[in-house]
Amino acid sequence: MRYFEYGEPDVLTFEEVEIPEPGDGQVRIRTQAIGVNFVDTRFRRGPSSGAIFERPLPGKLTGDVVGIVDKGDEGLVGRRVVALSEDAYADYVVVDAQWITQVPDDMDVAAASMLPTSAPVALRALRSGVVTAGETVLVHSAAGGIGQLAVQLARMAGAGLVIGTSSTPEKVDADVAIDYTAADWPDRVAEAAPGGVDVVLDAVGGDVLRRSFGVLRAYGRIVTYGAASGDLIDVPMTDFFALRSLIGFSLLAWRAARPEQARAEMTELAGLFATGQLRAGPAVTLPLSEAAEAHRLLESRAHPGRIVLIP
Q: Which residues form the Enoyl reductase (ER) domain (predicted)?
């Protein structure tokens, strides 16, 4: 499934193609399930989403694929694995073997699909912010896939207070839940954490990122790992003079810079899911033919958990 024009979810189109062949260092996966990523709804809309989301046509859809290796490394053939794919909405995908993670046959597909992208981003964003015991952590978009995991991981890291914001705060499982679409959300954060927060995780960007500086205490850190709003802001130097820091994070950049550590963290996260210490939350499962509906659900924020497509 791809798209040949930008627009609403209905531009997603099936096409028949040859089954892909793996190259050197690659494996082919027979797909069992595909975890849908919010960023693809922005790519699908094209330039109207903002310059950072412009991609050439025809557009391919990323996704977190769960499936069985059926060709490539002989030691992996027949193994159940997960991997991030750049062309994921398909019966078969080809991925780099170094970035697959083996998962138990009985692991839930929603949990397994969190391992390539959502969980590593949540874990590394927190560790980039150097969260320590007793600190206050503010997680924006806390009802989303990454946000839900970040809330759980912040607690595991010993955070004293976890505040989550969302446009649907009733779906946030943090110590304090706040609606960030309300103009006074920073006041609500200040009420919950009178001394300010130590770490902010943000993938919204724009005004939410800009106003997050105002809720930081001295030596507070913001980790930004996306800009779903499409608004890339300029940050005044005075924010840094106030002993506040802004740290950027990208999963692909992290993999390139620290590949061994990135792979080790994927294995670490697989263990947390397998033992139930980390939970994927409620999932919606749809057939691949209803990918347009999956995108509508993501854009409406009607479902807070994982959305999974089944070929």
A: 7-309
Ordered alpha helix ranges (H), the chain: 39-45, 109-112, 118-128, 145-156, 185-192, 206-212, 237-241, 251-257, 259-274, 291-300
> Apex CA 47: angle with CA 63 and CA 285, to 5°?
25
Rounded distance, CA 292 to CA 289, Å? 8
Amino acid at 4: F
* Residues 141, 147 contacting (CB under 8 angstroms): yes
- Whether 230 shows a pLDDT value over 80: the answer reads no
pTM over 0.70: yes
Strand, helix or coil for residue 213: helix
Which residues contact residue 301 at a Cβ distance below 8 angstroms, ignoring those fewer than 6 apart? 143, 166, 167, 168
Say which DSSP state 144 is in. Answer: S
161: helix, strand or coil: strand
Neighbours of 81 (CB within 10 A): 22
DSSP 8-state class, residue 169: G
What length does the chain have?
A: 311
